[in-house]
Amino acid sequence: MPDVAACLAGYQTLWLSYCFVDSERAVFLKKALLPISSLFISIAFLATGYGMLMTYIGLYLKQAGLSELVIGIINSAFFLGALLAAVFSQKLIVSVGHARSFSAFSALMVMAFLGHTLHYNPWLWAGLRLLSGFAFYALLIVLESWLNEKSSSEDRGRVLAVYTVVFFLATAIGQLILGMDVTSHLVFVLGSVLVLASLFLVAITRISQPVLPPFERYSLPRVLHIAPLALVGSVIGGFFVGGFYTMVPVFVLNTYGEQSVVASFMAISILGGLLAQWPVGTLSDRYGRRKLLAWAGLFSFVICLLLALFASQTWLFYLLGFLLGTSLFSIYPLSVARANDRLDHGKDLVEISRSLLFAYGIGSFLAPLILGAVLGVSGGLFFTVLALAALLLGGYALTAERIANEQLSVYVAVPAASGASLAQLDPRQDDEWVEDHKPAFPTAPESAPRTEPTMTDITETRSAMDDSAQPQRQNNN
């Protein structure tokens, strides 16, 4: 285990060094990162509770004897709350302020968590999950607004990279906690404690009040017109991530019957998603988002089929879970980057990114409903449905329009769950940042002198000969 931990720590350092220039690292840590370190710790507490509860709810309900369809309905309520937060929470934040809003949403989330321990009723739990989803994503909006407020245009890319790493690692830790075979009451109490710890850190941090831009309606038809592949990728990416956190644990529990196996599989898959961000980003900047989205779809298709066939072998199941994480957690960031490739120098990036995030939420909301119904019919069809969704993405990406290298923007990794304010933290709004981070594509070499005439030369020569022969014919006449 120490060797594995050291390897992961080394890879994390390598990935972060991609974002940090060595000569500037100390300055960034001192002037940009340390003043907002409490916000990152707060995010880590929230993400740990988020990952732990998202996985545990399905396990508890299955052990309580509920059908997979009902479990899917209850889990989908969480993402319905997320969609409602994206539309309605900003008005409350603007009216009462970020600090008070954070306190209110934290209180709402704690009440929802503890409400699970008071009485067990499936429909009551569905309502509590809706409140939890609303509160959690509203909290992310507040935190992301503060991060944006404290980040300069030069540091936004690095701040977002740290945010992504912290969120992935904290979510994986939440899975490992479940591997300790904790009781149900302890899970909900611990989740509440983590939210309160997050609130405490924010309460003692002196941060000026950010200014939220006016709320704009999400324009999915406009995104479909500008970047259809990005919209399709966002919906399917949300479908994969939503299904992964809600119904995959139920499938694993049905197959192995042990909560520790579920926790290990989830943690390994999440770490696979984190470790894939740097190579996927580098390759997509070099070869284009269309090819990498096609890879993510087709690769996920193959892995899902293998999971459907070899789900009974534990070591192979873990390996396939790691490989699946590398592709499924890359779909949404690649989709946002694809949309940015289609825009003129980051124009309307915030609006488009918010719309894609809403589409991502729609996919996450639909996943538990569809996969719950499928899992209730046949466990063998579960990963088959995911494979078909991946194949749809891969096939559509192959037929999508290619974008020239000089028009490509830059890949930016984002967390698996984020609020509507994340778009304001995107460094691709700054044209200079994009130009500084774009890869240098090789220029086409100058053509050597031609030794043989081309078809164009032959055509031009014949035309010139005809023009010169025309006056001679007129003189002869």
The dominant shape is: globular
- Give me the number of helical elements: 20
Task: Specify the structural class.
Answer: mainly alpha
Radius of gyration: 26 Å
Got a strand count?
A: 0
* Mean pLDDT rating: 80
SSE succession = HHHHHHHHHHHHHHHHHHHH
Spans of at least 5 consecutive residues with low confidence? 1-6, 8-21, 443-462, 471-477
Q: What helical percentage do the residues reach?
A: over 70%
Characterize the main sheet: none
Strand content: under 5%
Compute the separation of the termini in Å. 99 Å
Which characteristics define this entry?
single chain; about 475 residues; mainly alpha; 20 helices; disordered N terminus
Task: Note the topology.
Blueprint: H1 2-19, H2 22-33, H3 37-63, H4 68-96, H5 98-118, H6 122-150, H7 156-178, H8 184-203, H9 220-226, H10 228-246, H11 248-256, H12 259-287, H13 289-309, H14 314-328, H15 331-342, H16 349-377, H17 382-399, H18 422-425, H19 431-437, H20 455-476
Would you kindly provide a written description of the structure presented here, covering whatever features stand out?
The chain is mostly helical and 477 residues long. The protein is built from 20 helices and no strands. The chain has helices at residues 2-19, 22-33, 37-63, 68-96, 98-118, 122-150, 156-178, 184-203, 220-226, 228-246, 248-256, 259-287, 289-309, 314-328, 331-342, 349-377, 382-399, 422-425, 431-437, 455-476. Helix 15 (331-342) runs antiparallel to helix 16 (349-377). It starts with a helix and ends with a helix. The model is unreliable at 1-6, 8-21, 443-462 and 471-477 (pLDDT under 50).
